[in-house]
Amino acid sequence: MGLDDKISNKAEDLKGKGKEAAGNATGDDQLRAEGQSDQASSAVKDGVEKVKDAASNIKDKLTGH
């Protein structure tokens, strides 16, 4: 995973945590749900990037790189 992807995913996660906290503090269920959605999206993207990295590492080992 590239550094840009890591930063982007972390920023999305933090944004989601902020929205969720604000939603909890104000009783805004929609904002809380948006925050949870942002966090879930970040986690999925992070997981996809990790799978890509693992596949690339396996390919490199098989081809001797």
From TrEMBL:
Coiled-coil ranges per UniProt: none
Region (Disordered), start-end ranges: 1-65
InterPro entries reported in the protein's UniProt record: CsbD, YjbJ_sf
Bias (Basic and acidic residues): 1-20, 46-65
SUPFAM superfamilies per the UniProt record, alphabetical: Hypothetical protein YjbJ
Gene3D superfamilies: YjbJ
Domain CsbD-like: 5-56
Family: Belongs to the UPF0337 (CsbD) family.
Name used for this protein in its record: Uncharacterized conserved protein YjbJ, UPF0337 family
Organism annotation: Rhodococcoides kroppenstedtii
Lineage of the organism: Bacteria, Bacillati, Actinomycetota, Actinomycetes, Mycobacteriales
